[in-house]
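Table S7 (text form). Paired inputs.
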Amino acid sequence: MKPFIPLRVYYEEVVKEYKQGKNLLKKYEDMDIPLKPIKAHHKIEELRQRPNKEFTKMKKYLILGTRKTIRITPNDKSADFIVPFTSSGCTASCLYCYLVCHFNTNSYLRVYMNRDEMIKKVKRKIKKVKEHKVYELGCNSDMVLENTITGNLKWVIEEFGKLENATATFATKFDFVDDLLTAKHNGHTQMRISINPKEIIRKVELGTSSFKKRINAANKMFKAGYKIGLNIAPVILEDGWEVMYENMFMEVNKLLLPKLKKQLFIEVIFMTYGVSNYYINTESMPKAVNLLDKGKMRPKGIGKYTYRNKYRNPAEKIIRGYINKYLPEASISYIV
């Protein structure tokens, strides 16, 4: 899988005040990629007015700006605190993407230049909290993907490496980790590699790394001293899911390093699917699989669906059984 090269770049003028912004604009200008100035990254009218059918084309755009609001919020799942960091959105087109529920067709990749401002706020929070906590980076983006453009993930990993009482964590569906292997992390960063059965990755997680490449990335990062987790997300209960997920766990057991399996932690998240996902997928990718199974799913909140308990609860029991059978030394952080 090749690193992302944008079809077009939109940028706020303030980007030119940052060294990274100047470098990126020059890089893309030298590549003859169209550059267009905008007033604000979240109000690009010509993109907001595009029809759903242009969703996949818009995913090829890159937006450069600054993050205006940096709000660190408590969390009780993968971290103690969620830190919106140097990007939002993504270049992939996963059919269930929760970002689509928030941004609709505007879930393209946005990269923010004011990383120094962000890390200063994180450091103030760490100093205030005093005790050791885990901080999730890139909760609404994929930091490994973004790192291929900016190098920000390696940078922030090394920043956390200098800190006391703080661990950084991030999840990814990409295998572009070679740049991170030499980072001076000092054991202060963990990576959760997101996986699904090969069949689901191929037809649902469009534009992401393959199953084997993800597992290989986990092994490489573990060898480099990072703590590694599996983020099994989202679990999709399509026909034949039991066999697909058991085969997946068998492959994980076969491919993961023995020492890694002994220290592995696992997160499991069942799929939540949005009505906005359904309409955008139907219009922009008409041949894509339909994940909205109203027979198995019930409404959850506004415009979202989740699995009915009579399907979800037995499925959780089965997934737990697979973990106990194939990864008996791993710990389960949570299942939701």
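Next pair, protein 2 of 2.
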Amino acid sequence: MLRRGDTGPEVTELQLRLRQLNLYGDRIDGTYTRPVEDAVRAYQLARGILTDPLGEYGPATRKTLESETRKP
């Protein structure tokens, strides 16, 4: 589970995957900021993902996002 304040390569990959879907246009810096949280929330709402907390990158969100995007 990734959430605001987390940092590292997993966050960088998340940012790059969200960018592939034109959901995230901010810096690719490996920091889970408010814009990342907002992009994850928008993605979850658009895909009807209700099992992960809104704005947090949990298992259901990860599985769906990884199936729709290519590995950066």
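The two ends are 19 Å apart (CA to CA).
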